[in-house]
Structures are given as structure tokens and as C-alpha cells.
Amino acid sequence: MSPRIVEVRQAVLKKNDLLARRLRQQFTDAGVCVVSLVSSPGAGKTALLGETLRRLAPTRRVAALVGDLATDHDAVRLRASGAPVRQITTGTVCHLDAEMVERALDGWDLAALEFLFIENVGNLVCPASYDLGEALRAVLLSVTEGEDKPAKYPTIFATSDLAVITKMDLAEAAGYDDALARRALADARPDLEVLRVSVRSGLGLADWIARLEAARSETRGRIRV
Amino acid sequence: MHELSIALSVVDVATERAREAGGGRVEAVHLRVGALSGVASDALRFAFDAACEGTPLAGARLVIEEVPLAAFCPTCRAERMLRAARLRCPVCGTPTPELVRGTELEVTALEVEEDVPTYR
Complex ipTM above 0.95? Predict the structure, then answer.
């Protein structure tokens, strides 16, 4: 007897996508702007997030979730800013998914927040497939890791809203070629916004903060009154 | 290597949909994997066998249809095939953010063998 064919047509990650959509609605309803940071390990996510929390904390109610396979080092580091920070330890899992985010938010009053940052596990491959319900996904690319990263990992760049080139203070020493990086980024996603920052020198941080505030205004604009 | 997580999701989807369709043993799962889906087919095949172990899908085949990336070029007003890391029309060079195909990751069909009664 030949097998019966059952037509399915279902996205493999539908469960994650549905949960992410629900989270996005919750974030919008609560008026909290959720920004996720993705990059390879060592591109400077935690340094940028720490500086961002420090700069926003005096005027905004901010909080962060940070993902790592093991240790709570990043959470401890970030708590120095005074903002509430929770660590998500994924064990062997190389990315965050919407369910981990939902679980980590347990007990937090979202309506009391204006910004929530989600630092993903350092990885340019797997986080690309998982929507976390964020309003803005920023992908970091440091000047020391090669301008062709977008060509090597096109999916994460294609699914991000904003690229942040980090460690600009090291650009000259690293022989960083900005034109090459811009071309690679534009090829990976033609309408990708690009910012350049250095946490150490302060370069570009005002623009980064302004971009975050713009994203927050958009979130608030979507609130139903 | 998130292909194991993806494979576990494939097994979940297939198990659930096979049950909804009246049960039977799943012999094969058909999957469409886009060039820009972020999933490597070889790693997924490898992970799938491991993910099936101890589930009703044990021994099932994974049939992958790889979907190349295609976008609509607003200048040529035509659909063009692209490489994943270069979202530009290969003919005229116009940036092509509007993707038509190549990001999908979906279970398209199952091959189900009806439960055959056994007599002793």
C-alpha cells in the first residue's frame, strides 16, 4: 500500500512566531519599546548596553534581559547601571526564543518600563530565525571582525532593522575599510540603517540614543487610546 | 547549531499534524528550506534523525526542497534570482529589498502509512 500524502504547509517556527506576535502586542499595549541586540561573541553588545543603560537611566525607566549559555557575568556587569537586569542562561541552546523571553519577564510590570533591552546570545547564525517580539533588532559589527561579516551571515543582517558598527576607536589600528563595510551591509539589506559608535570614545552614542528615542516614539504612537 | 532546535520543531509539527489527519506512521516529512532561512540543510538532516528518536516519527525520512532566493526588481519590473548576501538585481544592479521567495522554512507535506492491522 502506498503512503497517503497529507498536505501541511506550516511554518516550522509557527509556535515561536505566534508567541512573539503576542509579546509584541503586550509590549505595545504597555508602551515599552523593546530593542534586541545581536552580534558575534565579543562585538561589544554588553559594553554598548551598559553605556546605553547608564545614559538612559536618569530620564527613562529601563530594564534588560541578557542571554548567555552560562554564567551571570553580563547581568552582574550591567546591574552597575542601577537598572533591573535579568540573566537568561540557555544551557546549550545557542539563541534566545520567544518562550525564554516570556518566562524571563515573569513578575515584571511592563507598563512601568519605557525601554526593555534584550541582549541575545553572541551568535550571528541562530538568533536570526527567532522573532522575540522586539520593535527594533540591532545587529552589531565591530571594526576588528572583518567588513565581510554581512556576506558571511546574510540572514541575521537581512532580518535586522539597524546595524551598529562598534569599536570605532580601533578602526585605524584594525585597518577597517568603511566603504567596504557599507557595501556589504547594503548588499545584505538594501534599506538597513547604519550607525557608527565607540563606547570608549563616546563617538556616535548621541545618535544611537536618539535612534532609540525615535523607536520609542513609534512604539508610543501605536498605543491605542 | 540551532538545527537541532529546528529539527525538534519539525518533529512537533509533523507529529501534531499526522495525529490531526487521523494517525498512521509518518514515513516522510517534506520541508521547504529557503536560501535565506538561516538553516543549513545538511545540519538539519543530521539533527532530524536524532530528533526523531524515541518519537512516533522514528525512522521517518526528511525530504528537503531547497528554495533559491528571488526578489522583485523595481527597475526591470521582473522577478530575479539572487545570491543570499547580495540583494541587488543581477541584471541592472538595483537594490532589491522586496523578496519574493527564499526565506521560508515550512513543513509542506507528510507521507503517512495507514496503520495496517496485524493478525497472529
Answer: no
